[in-house]
């Protein structure tokens, strides 16, 4: 699980209001997409490439290139199959990649599935993904009209998971979701509180986050609209100015759709009606260019209200006419606009047209009522048919019971004749069952004995392996001490004496210099052997430092070794630390000596009690099936230590394609 490498860009994928599937953007994604495309080609390992492809799939979605988004997801999923966390996370990306083509109910099911796959992982990235999943689930409930279900998803799932992730953007979106629900319920004070928390979370996010600005602008505008309805005009102006200070650098951003609406209602509430109309007109022009029909409806209706407030009823009627022609109108909205048409014509004293629109309003209202009435009639008819069917069933049941009684008497006579035969048959069956049970019991005892014998042998084998490894480590430690303190001291003494002789003679002959150089080389080699046999850093500084020192010491001009460590427990038992150290040591030795690798990546991580070791090299590789996983002393030693730790070893390799080794075991044993 490559936490540093797996920098997931998972927020703002689904950024739309209820009934509006607009993905808000500043229009600056192309540059970041180019960077991600380069990363997919330049990444040093499959895990890095998988993470880059996953990020790329999200940003292709933001520019509505669904084919490229799906292709990038498929590549990431294939590369991530070898890594537990990436494999689980791919379900999240699959859900997102299908968003535009999947029905709501399937999407809900996929969200729950992705959440269950991520549940075992307790790291920040997993919580981040789960936070976004449940935020998306909440938005779906709003689209379905289930505000209670949406609130439950936001408050009890999205917000807690986002808090655990520590990601300000994800947490800000969760707070914003709660705030919008309170806005829809006209509870403006509560909405303001959550929108403020959203702003604070997003402002604290790193400035290099590619989605920080677009989320901040959306939240500023939403908060500004809410402040207008609270009549807190100073606060509204402040946040709208913040939004404009960012938007002015992105004149083609579709966020202007909601900015012009918020700016317009701000002016309208201040009785600056002409400025309000100017803002709405800008938004209407943009909405037409972008074919954003729902935003267009909202802006038209706001313009109508502003004109009505100015008593410009003729212009207001023209706006309503254009609004009613919009094919994206919901029937309830159409009913509202018909009512406003006849009230506006009434203000113009045009009683004939007012009457016509009032008639259309009544007809539409009646049709809505008729639809409900027809539904009620169908339900009543269904209930009536069910009642009639129940009566018929009761009559049939009575006839059936009479027939059953007659049959029962006949069966009783027949049954009496069969009882005696049944008793004899039962006795025979009982004897047979008793014999079979006795035989099964004997077989089970034999199986239990064999199982106990097998477990005893396994226990003895584990004890023998443990004793051998402990003895080996003690002997390593003793030899390392003897070499370092004994032979090392002797070599150092010889060098001092030779140096003194050279000084007394007042000259330094080439032969004597050569001997001194050989002594230096021998001393360094002796120290290297002693350090490998029992590294001091493992005893003094712990496992992570010891592994890092080993990787640094084994790095040469021909072989570059990279080491990454994530969440390694510093309180692991010394015996477990030594086993892990020896496993990594054997892996590196094999990669250098046998694989001829020029680049090696070592990754060690811990998720609760599960420890993961992954080594990737770009060496010559081999055929594991033809060669056998246990061939060679190095792999045999690794296999023995992994079995002792009750772990799993997986080797993925092919000729000329390098080797990937994954090891997993529970350090709680």
Question: What features would you describe in this structure?
Answer:
The chain is mostly helical and 669 residues long. Among the domains are: 231-328, Serine Threonine Protein Phosphatase 5, Tetratricopeptide repeat; 540-666, Histidine kinase-like ATPase, C-terminal domain (Heat Shock Protein 90), CATH 3.30.565.10. Helices cover 73% and strands 6% of the residues. The protein has 23 helices and five strands. It has a five-stranded mixed β-sheet, with helices on one face. The chain is flat, with a radius of gyration of 38 Å.
**CA distance, first residue to last residue:** 21 Å
Enumerate the spans where pLDDT stays under 50 for 5 or more consecutive residues.
1-21, 372-384
Q: Could you state the order of secondary-structure elements as H and E?
A: HHHHHHHHHHHHHHHHHHHHEHEEHHEE
The mean pLDDT is 79
Question: What's the multimeric state?
Answer: single chain
Instruction: Fill in the CATH topology of the domain at 540-666.
Output: Heat Shock Protein 90
Largest pleated sheet: 5 strands, mixed
Rough shape? flat
- Order of strands, widest sheet: 1-2-3-5-4
Counting DSSP E segments of at least 2 residues, the number of strands comes to 5
Question: Structural class given helices, strands, pairing?
Answer: mainly alpha
């Amino acid at each position: 699980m490559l936490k540093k490498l797996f920098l997931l860009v998972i927020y703002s994928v689904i950024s739309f209001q209820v009934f509006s599937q607009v993905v808000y953007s500043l229009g600056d994604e192309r540059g970041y997409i180019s960077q991600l495309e380069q990363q997919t080609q330049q990444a040093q390992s499959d895990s890095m490439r998988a993470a880059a492809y996953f990020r790329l799939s999200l940003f292709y979605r933001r520019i509505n290139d669904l084919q490229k988004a799906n292709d990038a997801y498929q590549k990431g999923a294939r590369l991530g199959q070898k890594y537990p966390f990436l494999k689980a996370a791919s379900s999240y990306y699959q859900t997102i990649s299908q968003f535009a083509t999947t029905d709501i109910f399937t999407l809900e099911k996929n969200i729950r599935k992705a959440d269950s796959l991520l549940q075992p992982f307790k790291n920040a990235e997993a919580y981040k993904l789960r936070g976004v999943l449940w935020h998306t689930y909440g938005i779906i409930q709003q689209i379905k009209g289930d505000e209670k279900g949406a609130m439950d998803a936001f408050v009890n799932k999205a917000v807690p998971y986002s808090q655990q992730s520590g990601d300000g953007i994800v947490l800000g979106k969760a707070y914003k979701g709660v705030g919008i629900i309170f806005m829809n319920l006209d509870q403006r004070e509560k909405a303001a509180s959550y929108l403020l928390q959203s702003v604070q979370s997003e402002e604290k996010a790193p400035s290099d986050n590619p989605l920080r600005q677009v989320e901040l602008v959306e939240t500023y505008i939403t908060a500004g609209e809410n402040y207008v309805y609270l009549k807190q005009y100073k606060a509204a102006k402040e946040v709208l100015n913040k939004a404009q200070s960012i938007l002015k650098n992105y004149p083609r951003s579709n966020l202007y759709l909601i900015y012009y609406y918020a700016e317009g209602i701000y002016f309208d509430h201040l009785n600056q009606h002409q400025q309000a109309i100017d803002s709405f007109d800008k938004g209407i022009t943009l909405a037409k260019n972008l074919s954003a029909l729902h935003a267009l409806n909202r802006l038209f209706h706001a313009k109508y209200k502003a004109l009505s407030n100015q008593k410009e009823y003729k212009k207001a009627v023209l706006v309503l006419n254009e609004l009613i022609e919009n094919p994206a109108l919901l029937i309830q909205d159409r009913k509202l606009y018909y009512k406003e048409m006849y009230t506006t014509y009434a203000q113009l004293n045009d009683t004939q047209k007012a009457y016509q629109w009032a008639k259309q309003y009544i007809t539409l209202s009646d049709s809505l009522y008729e639809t409900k009435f027809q539904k009620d009639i169908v339900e009543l008819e269904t209930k009536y048919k069910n009642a009639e069917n129940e009566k018929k069933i009761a009559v049939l049941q009575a006839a059936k019971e009479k027939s059953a009684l007659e049959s029962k008497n006949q069966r009783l006579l027949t049954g009496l004749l069969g009882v005696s035969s049944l008793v004899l048959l039962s006795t025979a069956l009982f004897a047979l069952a008793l014999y079979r049970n006795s035989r099964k019991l004997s077989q089970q005892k034999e199986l239990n004995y064999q199982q106990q014998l097998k477990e005893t042998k396994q226990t003895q084998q584990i004890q023998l392996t443990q004793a051998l490894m402990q003895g080996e480590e003690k002997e390593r430690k003793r030899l390392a001490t003897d070499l370092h303190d004994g032979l090392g001291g002797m070599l150092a003494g010889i060098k001092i004496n030779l140096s003194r002789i050279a000084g007394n003679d007042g000259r330094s002959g080439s032969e004597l210099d050569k001997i001194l150089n050989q002594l230096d080389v021998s001393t360094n080699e002796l120290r290297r052997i002693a350090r490998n046999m029992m590294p001091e850093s493992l005893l003094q500084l712990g496992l992570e430092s010891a592994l890092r020192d080993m990787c640094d010491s084994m790095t040469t001009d021909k072989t570059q070794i990279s080491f990454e460590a994530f969440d390694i427990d510093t309180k692991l038992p010394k015996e477990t630390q030594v086993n892990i150290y020896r496993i990594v040591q054997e892996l590196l030795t094999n990669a250098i000596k046998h694989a001829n690798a020029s680049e090696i990546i070592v990754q060690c991580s811990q998720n609760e009690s599960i420890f993961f070791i992954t080594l990737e090299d770009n060496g010559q590789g081999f055929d594991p099936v033809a060669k056998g996983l246990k061939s060679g002393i190095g792999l045999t030693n690794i296999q023995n230590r992994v079995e002792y730790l009750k772990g799993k070893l997986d080797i993925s390799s092919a000729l000329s394609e390098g080797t990937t080794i994954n090891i997993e075991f529970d350090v709680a044993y």
